[in-house]
Design a protein that fits this description.
By secondary structure, the chain is an alpha/beta fold. Helices cover 54% and strands 12% of the residues. The chain binds guanosine-5'-triphosphate and magnesium ion.
């Protein structure tokens, strides 16, 4: 594959190149090393906004509304919808395309769903690289939509500058979110489907739960929206800008980006090590199994031996 050409295409903002590059990430292809090296310098300019929450609360509809605001300010935007809970579905793709139809023909908007078919570290590693591709391609606002409530979602939320938790009456309650650690990662809450009964209660419950937590430098606002009608989206767009400005001036944005890059490298390195370790273990497997069974070598010693062997295997591939 002509990775050089692909990189040039991404940097030139060519949509087909961007789509192909994201497919490489999905599949966890070996060409990723070269791709990453070719685009990294040009990424880091976009504002990355996460939209997370239970299935069907209206994340895509809210995102579509936000894009309209971004476009009205003459900025370009991309939406990346990921489902960290089901590695095999690309199922969200069609649905998201339908919901985003208003923007489907706008050259300043890029919409894409993503699954992790082969990426080593799963979505926690695939999402940030896909976001960097969009960033390097010149999209100025990137919305990362994640479905589900759980650890995977928290991981993906950690890859963004501003995390919005979307809720709706009757869909995923605040207690469940508190348990999943979602309240801690949220910068903004929006209770969507405000046209339905029970939205006020969700807002009240949420404010109460937030009140119980420790005081924070940034108090996450709790907003309401009826995304289907475009109501409340302007206020949400304002809150995102306010959060971005606060995070920039308080140094929080810089610290967050730095911390998540280090965490990503750590995870990448661990995944690579795991690969080498399993190869080494397979080669030494039967002898090691025998030694373990005969109690000549204990598990801790065996692990230490494996680390040494794997390090040697990486530095001296011959
Ligand atoms: N009544 C009402 N329905 C809404 C509102 N916003 C979105 N919906 C509807 O709720 C359904 C789900 O909306 P989506 O935007 O696809 O929700 P989502 O959270 O992206 O869904 P998944 O990606 O499948 O988790 C759609 O049928 C929307 O038309 C709203 O403000 N009020
Ligand atoms: Mg959606």
């Amino acid at each position: 594959m002509d990775v050089r050409g692909l990189i040039e295409g991404v940097l030139a903002g060519d949509r087909r190149a961007v789509a192909r590059a994201i497919s490489l990430v999905e599949d966890g292809r070996p060409e990723l090393d070269e791709l990453s090296a070719g685009i990294y310098e040009r990424a880091g300019r976009a504002a990355i906004v996460g939209l997370t929450g239970a299935p069907g609360v209206g994340k895509s509809t809210v995102a579509a509304g936000l894009i309209a605001h971004v476009r009205a300010r003459d900025l370009t935007a991309a939406v990346l919808a990921v489902d960290p809970t089901s590695p095999l579905t690309g199922g969200a793709l069609l649905g998201d395309r339908v919901r985003m139809q208003d923007h489907a023909t706008d050259p300043g908007v890029f919409i894409r769903s993503m699954a992790t078919r082969g990426h080593l570290g799963g979505m926690a590693l695939a999402a940030p690289e896909a976001v960097r591709i969009l960033d390097a391609a010149g999209y100025q606002r990137i919305f990362l939509e994640t479905v589900g409530v759980g650890q995977a979602e928290v991981d993906v939320a950690a890859a963004t500058d501003t995390t919005i938790v979307v809720m709706a009456p009757g869909l995923g309650d605040a207690v469940q979110m508190a348990k999943a650690g979602i309240l801690e990662v949220a910068d903004i809450f929006v209770v969507n489907k405000a046209d339905r009964d029970g939205a006020d209660e969700v807002v009240r419950e949420l404010r109460q739960m937030l009140h119980l937590g420790a005081a924070r430098e940034w108090e996450p606002p709790v907003l309401m929206s009826t995304a289907l009608e475009g109501t409340g989206i302007a206020e949400l767009a304002d809150a995102i800008e306010r959060h971005h400005m606060w995070a920039t001036t308080a140094g929080v944005l810089h610290a967050r980006r730095r911390a998540r890059l280090l965490r990503e490298v750590e995870t990448l390195a661990a995944e690579r090590f795991r690969e080498t370790a399993s190869t080494v273990l397979e080669a030494a497997g039967s002898a090691l199994a025998k030694d373990l069974a005969a109690r000549r070598v204990d598990p801790y010693r065996a692990a230490a031996m494996l680390v040494e062997e794997a390090a040697r295997a990486r530095t001296d591939p011959a």
